[in-house]
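Lecture notes, unit on protein representations.

Consider one protein chain, 462 amino acids long.
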Amino acid sequence: MIARGISHTRELLRRGEISAVEHTTSVLTAIREQDTLDAYVAVAGDEALRAAEYADARIRESGAEAWRRMPLLGVTVSVKDLLQTHDLPTTRGSLLPNDRPLRDAPAVARLRAAGAVVVGKTATSEYGWSASTVSRIAPPTRNPYDPRLTAGGSSGGAAAAVAAGLCDGSLGTDGAGSIRIPAAFCGVVGYKPSFGRVPYFPNGADRLAHQGPLARTVADAALLGQVVEGPHPTDPDSGLGSLDAPRATQGLRIGWIEYEGTSDEVRRVTDQARSALTGQGHAVEDVELRCADAYPALVDLLAACEAAGARPEDDEWADSGRLEMVRYGRTLSGTDVIRAEEVRQGLRRRLRTVMDHYDILAMATVPIEPFDAQDIGPSWAADPRDLQWLAWAPASYPFNMTGQPALSLPAGLTRSGLPVGLQLVGPVGADDLVVSLAARLEFDLGTLAHPPAVAFEAALAR
């Protein structure tokens, strides 16, 4: 039996139709026997079964009360291979030597404390450098709806695993779109909380990376987000994004952004989502950001940070694409980095002004459809020497630079059967507003709220 999501699994456990051990065993078996998508790079064993046995004992003792104390009790989750886990290798998608962590990353520890059963580590590009999941340590992760195509990245393994039912939910990272891009390509929900809302250790000096959940529904993603959020002493930025105040979700002002180069099929699907927002009584109007393209500044910030942590003697072991970024980063001066930071600050000021007029921004998560699984981008951006490896996803990286909460939810399918994501973005700290609107919209759209098992099974048959 494949996993159908957190809410579904909790209900089966509550009714006694399955035990946590049975569920965990079936998921582990499915991963080992059916992971033709190459979503996982490491699979748990005895540690996962011990966690499942503990969950069953708590359920027998406390019944429904068990989930009030441990809301993920008996639920299977995966963890992106960038995040530390004490019981599984953390390779970060790299042939470079990595230390075996003695403890879990803070967010992973919180998942376990909530009763979650960690079933494995999901694939990533090396150190999460690209928005596809291609690395030297494993085959590329493939799209559950068409395995010839990419699952996106760098949390592509997480998105593919959730969509294919190889876990109930997953924890990913997002430094420039790495949760939301694969969520859109794989037809699942990907939620990037406000910067600092979830503690991140070890984090990069560029202060772009967020941690967040990927799940089959908005409710599942919200529950995962609630479990892992909150300050932690290892991350001095943690707690910065916890600024929520109650806000009504009726009659919102929504700014709609249409990016140049959006494919006809993506536009057709997202136009339906726009109509659904209007039908809910929201005022939706077109908006242009009217600011300088922040992509060159993003490249400089990322490349400088990568170069600072890379040793020249390790170049021969590095992914060739990431190495191009590192080499570029070594050419940057301190002045270059400061100028990039000034662009980031200008973008933050501009987006703050825009958010004075709108409660939410909405747009296609990715303006194009998935490309070949072996590539890091569409044909015009597939050569890492051109430094265009993320230019094809203009709706993702700006909101890492501003730290705003952003959530991608399934909006529908193209005529060829590929998922399209809709992204909702709120002001910094307005995470609950973003999640609440996404939940209402998910109910109205309905199309891919629960990715059907038959989609995965049909993809495997191709």
